Amino acid sequence: MSATGRHQAGITLPQPAQPNLLAVVADLGDAVAVGPLLAELGQAVDTCTAGTDPRLLGLPPGDLTVTVGVGPRLVRRADPSLPGAADLPRFSRERIAPQARGGDLLLQICASDPLLLPVVATALLEQAGHRIRERWRQSGRRGPNIPVDKDISAPRNLLGFIDGIVGPHTAAEHQRHLWLTGPAPVAGGTIAVVRRMELDLPRFTALSVAEQEAVFGRRRATGAPLSGGTAAWDPNLGAKTPDGRYLVPADAHVRRANPNVVGVGLMLRRSYSTDEPTPGLLFISFQNDLRTFTDTLARMDDSDALLRFTTTTASATFLILPGFDQLHPLGAKMFP
Domain Dyp-type peroxidase N-terminal spans what residues (predicted)? Predict the structure, then answer.
């Protein structure tokens, strides 16, 4: 699909998200001119998604998207006051090697054809050449999408639960919670959080279905909250059993991460399941305020039952640059 427009592809479009992803995180050399590099990458993204780049080796691009983000160090170089200049804080349950924390450049490559991912990554890294140094990469995939509401569907994660039910789904919600409206250099962009997590499948599998549902606060089969209704319903966090117990347990994920309780906006999640190096999740969220993520995870850190089954092994945040076209190169307003 087309790479050009007000927003980069690979965030809200296509919908639903493609089943395969490859994320590449890299650093730039201190002397590298950021603007020319981003402009070249944007041109390469355009030719790859259009199917005219010979480095595709004849593979049809189909629904290929490439989404490019820059890390806090580069944002601060442009303007320390811009959204995206703040690093992610550290949280509990992390086991992160130095090279897997942070980064200057994100290349998120998605497609229905899994063969495209390494081919496109090779083309983009070749375009950048010695100007960047790869930190880490992670591939992932999404299972079949399950309808949860009108025009809304989401896949299951490796724990068997529907993932990504809550989020900004309408154009109005995207404008309120997802897209940056200013300052001018970032208008049309968004803030991404990328975290790779290992999942303790054996320990979670050992739980009964009822115990698993208590961890999430949702029915495993349907995604409906334990307080009743359908998957699209907001959980009734005040609902109790006749003997006074909360239907949605106090430490359930849907309670601890509920945006109304946390007091933050909505995050758009486009996460992918992983199996290398271990079974897990590549958590990817997009929001127009980093605090949407950090405040949510800080509250989850306190007592979210789901986190007991996770260990984060990579973590970074990126400013996803505004969209681009032939007259307005990728990143040109930030790095003229």
Answer: 8-140
Asked if residues 13 and 335 have their Cβ atoms less than 8 Å apart, the reply is no
- Map out the domains of the chain as residue ranges: 20-320
CATH 3.30.465.10 is held by the domain 20-320: no
* C-alpha–C-alpha distance, residues 170 and 245, integer Å: 35
Closest CA to 224 of 157, 306, 165, 307: 165
Say which amino acid occupies 203.
R
pLDDT in tens, 190-215: 999 999 999 999 999 999 999 999 99
Query: Shortest CA distance to 34 belongs to which of 103, 104, 124, 108?
Result: 104
What is the 8-class DSSP label of residue 89? P
Residue type, 140: G
Count other C-beta atoms under 10 Å from residue 203's C-beta.
Answer: 10
First to last CA, the chain: 27
- DSSP, res 225: B
